[in-house]
UniProtKB/TrEMBL annotation:
SUPFAM superfamilies per UniProt: Six-hairpin glycosidases (SSF48208)
Database matches in Pfam families: GDE_N_bis (PF14742), MGH1-like_GH (PF22422)
Protein name: Amylo-alpha-1,6-glucosidase
Upper taxonomic lineage: Bacteria, Pseudomonadati, Pseudomonadota, Alphaproteobacteria, Hyphomicrobiales
Domain Mannosylglycerate hydrolase MGH1-like glycoside hydrolase: 312-616
Residue ranges constituting the Putative glycogen debranching enzyme N-terminal domain according to the UniProt record: 35-229
Length: 731
């Protein structure tokens, strides 16, 4: 039986902020430039600086601690003028082009007019370090002496402090330690750990202090001088100097990104905007992936969620499964290795439950936030089983299936023994300690689950999409069991799925609403709210065939579909707000899941409409990068979408959304038993006349396919085939 839950803990507090991200300043105003490699990420402004200030999230972060909070370049004591700033298409480097403003002459000498000294900053991250090359070129016809200074500081703030959390006590910052070519900054936290930042310069600065490095450079006409820097977050010393490590690390970093991209299928088309969007999606995924001992794992997003998240990675793996199954395998094995095996109320952990979030910072180590190893998501566990089934069906990888089977069995045990808290056949959530998340579905804001009159729902809460995922989990477990020869188990799992489907339809479908209700509250009263969550029922397959048309119509009507995408909450609902985090905004990943569900239910044209909306939206965002979310205002002629002020970008499940939308629109699938790539009633979006998919893999075999517009339906042809693999098209 499920242990009892304190009613006061299970109920939601309408006034609790629930670890919200402070939004006293908008990231959009600063045009952030982000970089990431493994457990290190950085946020700079367009100049390449990290500028402290109100709600600033700038800096260099490693394992949830800010190792560099201030980093500022000046020429002759003033900030250079910005010429351009961009992150490479493959996300390998940030390049900022700067120049001098008008400057008075030194010691009464000739003034330096603007645009005579060109400064180029090239920067990237690799293995716990930030590497930078600063080149200065004199375009004047006379020699120039200029002073370049780098000021720096490290506050060693925990990421949750940067997000807005207040602490009554902090550890001790130590005095800087100077060497001939660098500075070491250090902090001892209340957890007893010493965190260090080492800055190393080459050539040796003219002057070096604990917070500044200054160079006095003599530049002949047409001459260039170069400064190299390495900023390490792991306390290690550079090997061979900053210049040599820059070159070695740059080569290794680009090789790693190229290998990740080359592993996946390639997409090109007749539409350059589409090509750019797909390249950005693949590049963002490549940089967000971290290599764990179990395999590739996409961290959720920069800046706030650059760590292991269960739900986010599972959905990202679903979105990319057709293109790169290695991501799904890495996610499944890593989550299985970290599956809960005991009760821990403080971490919302129960045997068999799949991880929600991992944090490594001081506040997590001290228990000031509960996320050191936290299991407070109700949907990660059934999604884990669903993905395991989808991965095996996609690849036929029975060796991995056998490795995963104990974790799958434990997850199913959690569903029956702990997930169903009151024995009614539905999986509910309610936190087991006062520090946990109040809402534990993907919409985890404190106000995201409510009744038609706006009252917040009281727990334990059964979400519509969670029941759908549980249905999908039983079906997936049955599929795996049959492949592994566990035939009696498969029959039991199938019966569980069908029993849940009937109960779900009776309790969640509302004919007056025309769709599924958002949730059932702790007293089994339905939250009669039109939400995007209902689309997840189509994705998981729990919707009865007769319900799909009504759900699709509701999702695509004017109240729900903004023109850019499906809103989380339909316009007109009590708590609808297009500027909110979860109550009226548009989330690309949510739309991708909905589109996959629509396509699987026969509504491929509706899926194509979502695809077109999000593609058009991506054109308006910086770097053509789909953010975590954007506002749900209606699409207007000659206007782009409205940004959300603190959205993460890049974000893994948002980056992967176009990939899933493409698969949904094309009806792309894989039949491992028949050795064929399948296209079921494919639709070619209106913005594409021709599409080429290369390196579609099935086992060790591969196929390239061209899709062309031909009258009313697309025509498909095989461009290349390597192995005994066939193409099958259902008209």
């Amino acid at each position: 039986m499920t242990p009892s839950v304190d009613a006061a803990v299970a109920e939601q507090d309408a006034h609790e902020p629930d670890y919200v991200i402070a939004a006293s300043a908008s990231q959009i105003e600063t045009t952030p430039r982000t970089l990431k490699h493994d457990d290190t990420f950085a946020v700079f402004d367009a100049h390449g600086d990290a500028v402290p200030g109100l709600a600033s999230n700038h800096g260099l972060f490693h394992r949830d601690t800010r190792h560099l909070s201030h980093f500022f370049l000046t020429i002759e004591g003033v900030r250079p003028l910005l010429l351009s700033s961009t992150v490479r298409e493959d996300n390998a480097t940030l390049t900022c082009d700067l120049t001098n403003p008008d400057l008075p002459g030194r010691d009464g000498g000739e003034a330096l007019l603007h645009d005579l000294i060109h400064i180029r900053r090239s920067r990237f991250l690799y293995r716990s370090a930030c590497h930078e090359c600063v080149s200065l070129h004199n375009f004047d016809v006379v020699p120039r002496r200029v002073e370049i200074a780098f000021t720096f500081d490290a506050d060693f703030a925990d990421l949750f402090e940067v997000r807005g959390a207040k602490r009554s006590r902090r550890g001790v910052r130590h005095m800087p330690l100077l060497a001939h070519d660098g500075v070491r900054l250090a902090y001892t936290g209340l957890d007893g750990k010493v965190r260090r930042t080492g800055l190393h310069f080459q050539p040796v600065p003219s002057e070096l202090e604990g917070s500044q490095a200054r160079y006095r450079l003599d530049l002949a006409p047409g001459a260039t001088q170069v400064i190299y820097m390495e900023i390490r977050c792991d306390g290690a010393e550079p090997h061979g100097g900053a210049k040599l490590t820059f070159r070695r690390a740059l080569h290794a970093s680009r090789a790693t990104l190229r290998a990740r991209v080359a592993r996946a299928a390639e997409v090109t088309s007749s539409n350059q905007h589409f090509n750019d969007a797909m390249k950005r999606a693949v590049s963002d995924l490549a940089i967000l992936i971290t290599d764990t001992p179990e395999g590739a794992y996409p961290y959720a997003g920069v800046p706030w969620f650059s760590t292991v998240f269960g739900r986010d990675a599972l959905i990202t793996a679903f979105e990319t499964l057709w293109m790169d199954p290695a991501i799904a395998r890495g996610v499944l094995l890593h989550l299985a290795a970290n599956q809960a095996d005991a009760l821990d109320p403080a971490a919302d952990a129960e045997p068999g439950k799949i991880l929600h979030e991992v944090r490594f910072g001081e506040m997590a180590e001290l228990g000031e936030v509960p996320f050191r190893r936290y299991y407070g998501s109700v949907d990660s566990t059934p999604l884990f089983v669903m993905l395991a089934g989808a991965y095996v069906e996609r690849t036929g990888d029975l060796d991995t299936a056998r490795l995963l089977w104990p974790a799958v069995a434990a997850a199913l045990g959690w569903i029956t023994d702990y997930g169903d808290r009151d024995g009614d056949g539905f999986v509910e959530y309610g936190r087991r300690s006062g520090d946990g998340l109040v809402n534990q579905g993907w919409k985890d804001s404190h106000d995201s689950v409510f009744h038609a009159d706006g009252r917040l729902a009281r727990g334990p809460i059964a979400l519509v999409e969670v029941q759908a995922y549980v249905f999908g989990a039983w079906r997936a477990a049955a599929s795996i069991a049959r492949r592994l020869g566990h035939v009696p188990d498969a029959a039991v799992f199938e019966r569980n799925a069908e029993r849940l489907r009937d109960a779900f339809d009776a309790a969640f479908f509302d004919s007056g609403l025309g769709t599924y209700v958002l949730a059932l509250d702790g007293e089994k009263r339905p939250c009669r709210v039109k939400s995007s969550n209902a689309g997840h029922a189509l994705f998981a397959g729990i919707a009865l065939p007769g319900r799909a048309a009504a759900v699709a119509a509701q999702l695509m009507d004017g109240a729900s579909f903004s023109g850019w995408g499906v809103r989380t909450i339909a316009a007109g609902e009590a708590r609808y707000n297009p500027m909110s985090y979860h109550n009226g905004s548009v989330w690309p990943h949510d739309n991708a899941v909905i589109a996959m569900g629509l396509a699987g239910s026969g509504f491929r044209r509706e899926a194509a409409r979502i695809f077109e909306g999000l593609l058009r939206a991506s054109i308006s965002f910086d770097l053509r990068r789909l953010p975590e979310l954007f506002c749900g205002f209606a699409r207007q002629r000659s206007q782009g979408p409205v940004s959300y002020p603190v959205a993460c970008a890049p974000q893994a499940w948002a980056a992967a959304a176009p990939l899933a939308l493409l698969q949904a629109t094309l009806g792309l699938g894989f039949d491992i038993d028949a050795r064929r790539v399948t296209f079921a009633r494919p639709e070619l979006p209106e913005f594409l006349d021709e599409l080429v998919l290369r390196r579609l893999t099935l086992g060790g075999e591969m196929m390239d396919v061209r899709i062309q517009r031909a009258g009313g339906s697309p025509a498909l042809s095989v461009l290349d085939r390597r192995g005994d693999i066939a193409l099958w098209v259902e008209a």
